[in-house]
Specification:
The structure is a homodimer.
Chain A lengths: L2 H6 L3 H13 L4 H8 L7 E6 L6 H14 L4 E6 L8 H14 L4 E6 L5 H18 L3 E6 L4 H8 L3 E6 L4 H14 L2 E4 L7 H19 L5 E3 L8 H16 L3 H30 L2 H12 L5 H12 L1
Parallel strand pairs in A: 1-4, 1-5, 2-3, 2-4, 5-6, 6-7
């Protein structure tokens, strides 16, 4: 059996290898992704994002359990843009993952390449495609952190859940609006703590504008994920949103939005790689640096000349 | 007098306009940047980064005052990647800026475009160049947040100062290592609070590896910026680092590193713009989306074809 045949037959080892291949971006990657592409579009991808300490992992675990209870096949991608430097968060993740990985229905992958920002978000969408083609029904994408990578990853998922906690305070303040833009559903986790009603009403206030503009619901779910409080409601809200995306004009609109994102990011990324391989190869870049250091030219004229050469 | 002549004569209004032009990326931007380029390379750019609430603004203000006392001309760039959505932090910044702006020696600019990540970091380096060509001696670049943009901006500065506070806890844990990589100098601010010695010793432990590898100092300064405690020491550490960058082989090495960064980022960015203007113009992208939605092709074959067309 060829590698792809083993993949199609549902072999998790073949799945893991294919993901590694996509992450490492071998010469065959694009050909393989092109081959898998017709098998994609069936899974529901759900981005789970929020500041560190907001309980994302717990929410992901609980949701996963509920989906397994429904007989769904679940894939989990944990995206951690800073992790090559290993933080405490990751160790916890690994321990948790071993627990979950014992369950046959779940495939878990931690993505921890700190490359270019766009690169990590793009690879995540490619891994989503691989899990989708493999036959996963639900793909939970957990992003650790609150930066641009998370916003990019959110764009690549069908539905985005943003988790906040009462005590996040300052850091939430700084990013609330960015999260406001990407969230389909908010969760106020650790809702038994002081300040939970206040943050919920703040979020609701900010959402009112968006609700009016988009003419749809953006729910705020109060939860205590560790005690399984609010998770059923969250699941129900995700169900409704998934239904909405499938109904009427929404299906075509949403699919086209996702395709547009894929095209844009893929073409950009492959062009950038080509640029770095050929036009700005290491040797050429070294030459340019020497020249400009010696007072000949500048980066702006250089860019113009290189683009003109291309035509 | 032409616009550039007014700029060269030291007119802050001409400076502000030129920065706006660079931010908006007009057709003349590259020509102007190319013209200014020979006048750059004199200023010292200092990136100040750290989590929200760590007191970056206060440190920047105090450093600014010390540099003004030395008769230096200071430029401040406040980079806030999330701000089109307005957070609380920005309002405070604006109030502060009015105070500082009363002082003739200081020019302050808040950059708040949420475009592509790379875009914002790149524009920041271009604004640094403009301030440098204008004759600023010191350029303080304050980044609000802790994501990829901040790491990119740090790379674009001569010296990077990372500010942490004892209570940042979780979020620091998640990003400490990323900051570890970019920091030349650490500040533990609010050092009177509980946990300050612990975080300082944690940082020192993590730095020991880097110190050994790079064979140089990476100082950790204990500070209470609001009370002006530790700011003199910080300034001294910045002075030493600036001296080190100028001495021996370091000067050439550092300049070339900065030039390399400029070339890479500029060429990448201009190529990307060209790509979006021509190869993936709105109309073309719409066509591609329709085709793939209709089941014809996929993003990966499309990217390959577009790159082949280019040759």
């Amino acid at each position: 059996m060829s590698h792809l045949e083993r993949f199609y037959s549902g072999d998790p080892v073949a799945l893991a290898r294919l993901i590694t291949h996509v992450e490492n971006r071998g010469p065959e990657t694009d050909r393989i992704l092109a081959q898998l592409y017709p098998r994609t579009g069936k899974a529901l991808s759900i981005g789970i994002t929020g500041p560190p300490g907001s309980g994302k992992s717990t929410v992901v675990d609980k949701l996963c359990a509920l989906y397994l209870g429904r007989g769904k096949k679940v894939g989990i991608i944990a995206v951690d843009p800073t992790s090559p430097f290993t933080g405490g968060a990751l160790l916890g993740d690994r321990i948790r993952m071993q627990d979950l990985a014992l369950n046959d229905g779940v495939f878990i992958r931690s993505m921890a390449t700190r490359g270019s920002t766009g690169g990590l978000a793009l690879t995540t969408t490619e891994v989503i495609k691989v899990l989708d083609a493999f036959g996963k029904d639900i793909i939970l994408v957990e992003t650790v952190g609150v930066g641009q990578v998370e916003l990019d990853v959110a764009e690549a998922c069908d539905i985005t859940v943003v988790i906040l906690v009462p005590e996040s305070g300052d850091s939430i303040q700084a990013m609330k609006a960015g999260l406001m833009e990407i969230a389909d559903i908010f969760v106020v986790n650790k809702a038994d703590r002081e300040g939970a009603p206040r943050i919920a009403s703040e979020i609701n206030m900010m959402l009112d504008l968006k609700r009016e503009k988009c003419r749809r619901e953006f729910p705020v779910v109060m939860a205590q994920a560790v005690n399984n409080v609010g998770i059923d409601e969250l699941l129900g809200r995700i169900d409704s949103e998934a239904e909405r995306l499938k109904s009427g004009d929404n299906f075509e609109k949403h699919r086209k939005k996702m395709i547009r994102y894929d095209i844009l990011k893929t073409v950009e990324h492959r062009f950038r790689n080509r640029l770095l391989d050929e036009i700005l190869s290491r040797e050429k870049l070294d030459d340019f640096v020497e020249k400009i250091f010696a007072g000949q030219g500048n980066p702006y004229d250089l860019a113009r000349e290189l683009i003109n050469d291309l035509k």
